[in-house]
Amino acid sequence: MRILFIGDIMGRPGRDAVARALPVLREEHGAFDFVIANGENSAAGFGLTERVMNELFALGVDILTNGNHVWDKKEIVPFLDSESRMLRPANHPDGAPGRGFGVFEKNGKKLAVMALQGRAFMPVLECPFRVAEKLIESTDVKSIFIDFHAEATSEKRSLALWLDGSVSAVVGTHTHVQTADEEILPGGTAFITDVGMTGGHAGAIGMTLDSVLPKFLYGIPSKFEVCDEGVRLNAVVVEVDEETGRSMDIRRVNMSLHDKT
């Protein structure tokens, strides 16, 4: 099973990057059984709207994961319950809209996908370690893919090592900076600390430098604007053995869209 996971999509530049990059990636890597993307920044850099959600599905994204920005656009909240292809962090308390874990079938292949949010330097939610443990025990699906939306590198790696052999992949999101530590852990779990960001890399983690600087120079609020320069698509391609659920390979993608047509 070949899975493409696309790192945090930032606004219109990120969505355009997905549209332009997917055909190229299919040529380079072959067909993908599942395309997963973190979409929590897809609508002008903060949250999702119905239009943006449908645009990403139309581009070929099969499953959208989210993190702490999933609540930024209130219009999307009803779709967390009605749209099964969209996940919010599973470690929100019971009663929160939506779900954070789902089993997806496509062309005879079955994949369980889980979204989790970290607690270090993040809003406090239920323990992602224990929530993951319970959800893994609740399914008989062998191939399980986790998007761990977290700030601390130590928390991300600790979860991956703790779950090594129990899930196919743990990939980190949230920092918008791609790390170069992709590997297959001893138990067969693919891991990368952060997949990175899909959008404009010329500014500061997807926003223009001019809109971000006042916060650092003067300590005053400023309205962040999505960067549309230096557009890149950050992703990973993970190959999973369907019989065992163990990953065989993880490849990092850092594609410049500057010259792509």
Provide a brief overview of the structure.
25% of the residues lie in helices and 27% in strands.
Structure notes:
It is a single chain. This protein is 25% helix and 27% strand. By secondary structure, the protein is an alpha/beta fold. Strands 1, 2, 3, 4, 11, 12 and 13 form a seven-stranded mixed sheet that branches. Strands 5-6-7-8-10-9 form a six-stranded mixed sheet, with helices on one face. Helix 4 links the parallel strand 6 and strand 7. The chain is globular. The model has no long low-confidence stretch (mean pLDDT 96).
Distance between the termini: 28 Å
Question: How would you state the average pLDDT, rounded?
Answer: 96
Note the overall shape.
globular
Number of distinct beta strands:
13
Beta-strand proportion? 25-35%
Low-pLDDT runs of 5+ residues are: none
Rg (C-alpha, Å) = 17 Å
Order of helices and strands: EEHEHEHEEHEHEEEEHEE
Number of helices: 6
Helix content percent band: 25-40%
The chain-level structural class is alpha/beta
Please give the largest β-sheet: 7 strands, mixed
